[in-house]
Specification:
The complex is a heterodimer of chains A (about 425) and B (about 110). By secondary structure, chain A is mostly helical. Chain A contains 19 helices and no strands. The radius of gyration of chain A is 24 Å and the shape is elongated. Classes of the chains: A mainly alpha (about 425), B alpha+beta (about 110).
Amino acid sequence: MAEPGDHLFRREAGRMVAALTRLFGVHNLALAEDVVQDAFLRALDVWKQRGVPENPSAWLMATAKNRALDILRRERTARTYAPELGRLLESEWTLAPAVAEAFGESTIRDDQLRLMFSCCHPQLPEIAQVALVLNILCGFGVKEVAAAFLTGHAAMEKRITRGKKVLAESKRLFDLSDELDLPQRLSAVQRALYLLFNEGYHGSHSELAVRAELCVEAMRLAELLLANPVTAIPSTQALIALMCFNAARLPARIDATGNLSSLYEQDRRRWDQELIAKGEQLLDHSAIGPTITEFHVEAAIASIHARARSLEDTSWPVIISLYDTLMTIRPSPVVALNRAIAVAQHEGAQRGLDEIHAIVELDRLAEYPFYFAALAELEQQLGRADEARAHFLTASARARNPMERNFFDRRAHEVAT
Amino acid sequence: MSQFLYLYRGGDSSGTPEMMQQTMQKWMAWMQDLGAKGKLKDQGNPLEAGGKVVKKKTAVTDGPFAEAKDIVGGYTLIEAKDINEAAALAAGCPIFESGGFVEVRPIMTMSM
């Protein structure tokens, strides 16, 4: 008996919704989602007794396709469907080929992209865009999205419902050949995937498995951007390079005892060399073109860390100058903090502290645990144990999950002894 | 060894894709376990929800034949020592998690 792949249903959900939305039109998203749910229920009924078929993904697709044909035939006049397909769905002669095309591999890939672009609608806040992408393209249920973002179910449901309303009102899926709107929308999509990845990487969720999954989903969707010539521009390559470098470090972020391990203490032998090589290659390719984006700079920084055999081996001056560049592209207190930490590595703890105290809008870091952790590390290096311990405890009080809390508590304890 | 029929009644398995996949995997594990124990005579089939009800002299009507919560969704033929063992084996069925239940019926044997 075949075993269904991990998250098969979730993966296929996004693909089926994309194909169905192409046919039904984005205003019938709810209908598309119903068809997907029906296909899963049917698969569940049959597979649980008869076993998983040879090609489960094709089985699900065929089920959804047949259901779509039924609906399009039966409700031909009751609803209006995709405006782009219009007449094609009206005659039996053109209906079947149009449906077959919607379920073709390359069409599905493009339609997932179009759906993703539609989710990143400028009327929606970034967090809602990411929630919609997770819900519609990654097959996360509302409660799973809520869990990933540590928000209440009701609040997330409201956000997603509102997002779907905006989506439905946009009448048609985003058109990738729309040269006027593409650049801005593409950058919104990149930003959403970046947020999704970061949520998984640094995320507020305590459960590790869920967080790694968010990273995997972000990378899977980013690969779709890379597969289409229109969206595979240098900034996309840089974004994926950045994801590769960071994902390469995921296996080492948790040490043998199950504790969070900082970049400085990680066992570098556990970094995924294959992902690092892929990141290097993409970063090379991304270096063409006139624009340098924050993804380029962040990927370059991550690449230097990935290449360094040890902390001492790291080229801190290069990292500092990259942070300077990043401050001009996308200034933020968090970027400034990271820059200060690099300065400390290169020029000593006191210089690092000076840089931290000079950060503009320092108050915006008041709830950021790693701000206090950085202060603590530097105070400790300067031999001021009491200050260091106090800062670690402040960081601990602001920790976003038990893993972070344990990490800060452990450091506070180490200072004390 | 005697034979018993499991009738799977009711239950609603809708949920998020991940939840539904997990439900399916629990069912498959349970079926495989029955097979490994040598209790599975015929894994049976799922049944369509709709159908016809045919009664003498009256018109043929469309299903359902019972209240929705009691509709038979599928059947499996198993072998067990007695009805108690058959019922005990059914207790591990994942259908309970979705609000359904299993009806266990002994297959009548011909005896002279």
